[in-house]
Amino acid sequence: MAHDVVISVLTPDRVGLIAGVTHAVYAAGGNIRAISQTVLQGYFTIILTATLPDDCVAERLQQAIEATGRAGELSVLVRRRLPADAAPAAQPAGDRFVLTISGPDQPGILARITAYLASRGINIEDLAAHTDNARFLVMGELTVPASEDVRQLHIDLNALLPADDRLVTLQHVNVFAATTEVAFRHAKRSTP
Fold it and tell me: Residue 170 contacts by C-beta under 8 Å, 6 or more apart in sequence?
């Protein structure tokens, strides 16, 4: 009988990390179900779900993944998914939107934005943020409940930020995809 696990790894980035993690899962008889990986300011992080044979215990897999790096290099967590965890979470009724925000960087911006979204029952499905030359950029995918007025959300999000030199957009995911695809196709055609 098989069981599901969630695996996360954090370490300074280097070539070959994904190869090591995925090989360790494969060597343990596992099948990777989903994976998300990124490098953030020089740190590699990955989270994945996998199905493992019952004779593979979490501690042994964790040790196998750790062994793909130098001693103490990888911070690894392997957690068995409970049957309730394995079931997809009930999605709130609503639509998906893409939020982009840019402006001068200042402490507390992400805290204000995420607290506001949580207070409105808006689930953040994906979020990326970074600063560059004293400016910040946030991009996220949100599930906005059908009861929310998107125009008011846009107004409120603007009000959370300093008035100078900021840009806030909130687009339905279909509009974002259509305009991004059009822009990509246009750029591709104009390239010699």
Answer: 97, 98, 99, 150, 153, 154, 157
User: Longest C-alpha distance within the chain, in Å?
Assistant: 59
Query: Which class is 2-86 in CATH?
Result: alpha beta
Span(s) in the chain for CATH 3.30.70.260: 2-86, 94-190
Paired tokens of 12: 């300074």
pLDDT in tens, 92-117: 578 999 999 998 888 888 899 999 99
CA distance 165 to 188: 30
Q: How far apart are CA 60 and CA 25, in angstroms?
A: 11
With 0-12 / 13-18 / 19 or more C-beta atoms within 10 angstroms meaning exposed / middle / buried, residue 52 is buried
Sorting pLDDT into bands at 50, 70 and 90, what band is 180?
confident
- The answer for residues whose C-beta is within 8 angstroms of residue 59's C-beta and 6 or more apart is 78
Residues 6+ away with beta carbon under 8 Å from 37: 18, 44, 45, 46, 47
Superfamily for 94-190?
A: ACT domain (3.30.70.260)
- pLDDT above 50 for 80: yes
Interval 26-49: pLDDT, tens: 999 999 999 999 999 999 999 999
Residues 6+ apart with CB under 8 A from 166: 101, 102, 103, 104, 158
Distances in Å between the Cα of 127 and the Cα atoms of 50, 73, 138, 141 are 23, 26, 7, 7
